[in-house]
Design goal:
Blueprint lengths: L1 E6 L2 H12 L3 E6 L4 E3 L4 E3 L2 H8 L3 E3 L8 H10 L4 E4 L17 E5 L7 E2 L2 H7 L4 E8 L9 E8 L6 H25 L13 E2 L15 H10 L6 E5 L2 E5 L2 E3 L10 E3 L4 E4 L4 E4 L1 E3 L6 E2 H6 L13
Helix pairs in contact: 1-2, 1-5, 4-6
Amino acid sequence: MRLVFAGTPEPAAAALERLIASDHEVVAVLTRPDARRGRGRTLHPSPVKALAVEHGIAVLTPESLTRDDAIRHQLEELAPDAIPVVAYGNLIPADMLDIPAHGWVNLHFSLLPKWRGAAPVQAAIAAGDAVTGATTFRINEGLDTGDILDTLETEVGEAETSGELLERLAYAGADLLVKTMNALDAGTAEPTPQPEEGTYAHKIAPADARVDWNQPAAVIDRGIRAHTPAPGAWTMRGENRFKLGPVTPTGEGSLAPGEAALGKNEVLVGTADGDVRLGTIQPPGKKMMNAADWARGLAADAKEGVVFE
C-alpha cells in the first residue's frame, strides 16, 4: 500500500523504520515543525523527520492541519491508501479522515478503551496495572474511540519506568502497526467497535510529578516511575527543588512522611505507611547522583532535620 506516515517523537520513528522496511511504500511523512531546544535554542528536526530525510522520503511539516488549506491538497495528490499515525501531536480535522481509503490508523500505547488520551503509559504505571499493551485503531472524531483493528499485551515490570515501558511498546507496537497494514492490504482486518465507556490519561504537567509523601509507599513508588524520565519526579527541601529517580519501598520504618534519615550507605524517607529508599537524587544546579553519595557530601550541620515536602 501507499502510506503517508504521521508521527513526531522517537517512539514514532521506531514505527516508521519498520514501515520503511516492510513491503509497503512510505511516500511521505507528516511531522511537527522543527523545534528549538538546548541551551542555544537552535532548531532541531523531529526524530521522524530526521529518519525520513535519511531515507529520501518527502516531509510535510504544517503547523496545523486545521489552518493549512494546502495540506489537504498535498495529501489528496499523494493518494495514500492509509495514513498510519504514532504520536503525531496535531489534531486531524474530520474532513480529512476520508482521504485515505483505509483511513488514518493510530498506534496507541494502551489496551483501549483503557487509558485513552495523552499519557497512557504513565497512567498504566501510576495506577499499578499489571498488564498493558498497544492498540491499532481507525481514528474517528472522538478521542481514541475509533474501531479497534488489533492489539498486543505485555506485563508491566515491577520496577519499570514509563521510559522503559514506552521503549518496549514502541518496538513491539511498530510490528503491530506493520501487521495491521498487512491485514488492511489483504482485506483480512476485522474492525471491532469500542465500548463508549473508557478511562482517560490526561496530559502530564510538571506539577503532577511532585511527590506527595503523605501517600502510601507503593503509590509514591509508582508515581515516581510513571514520571521517569519525563517530566521527572521532584520534591522540595525548604526553597530548593530536588529531582528524584525511582525509589524502593522497604516495607517497614517509622519515619514521618517526608522525614529523611541519612545513613552511610542509604537515604530513607518516610511515607504514609513505611519508608522508601532513595535511588538517585538531583540537587539544584547539579547532575543526578546516587542518593547515598549526595548525603555523604553534605556538611554535618546540613544533615540535621532533613525533611522533604
